[in-house]
Specification:
30% of the residues lie in helices and 28% in strands. It is an alpha+beta fold. The chain has one domain: 2-Layer Sandwich (GMP Synthetase, Chain A, domain 3), CATH 3.30.300.30. It has a 3-stranded mixed β-sheet with strand order 1-2-3. The longest helix has 14 residues. The relative contact order is 0.22. The model has no long low-confidence stretch (mean pLDDT 95).
Length: 90
Amino acid sequence: IEDTLLNHPAVRYVAVVGAPDPQRTEIVCAFIVLKPPYRGDDALMAELQRHVRTKLAGHEYPRKVYFVDELPMTSTGKVVRKALREKLNR
């Protein structure tokens, strides 16, 4: 899912995590850092969801998309997914 999103021209960085969902057990959530001059809005979110649906299975698209300025990273450059999951629980 991350690789597919990275292939979109608007996406600079992305991290995908699962979030609890009462109907589906878990849903896909994407945290996305955009390239300039793109702006995160509902139209771009729908476009990114469509982009994933056309390349992968229909259920794999991110049901929630969060546009962020940066991703939490370790000193070695890996995404701290635990911090992203904690953001979902706030």
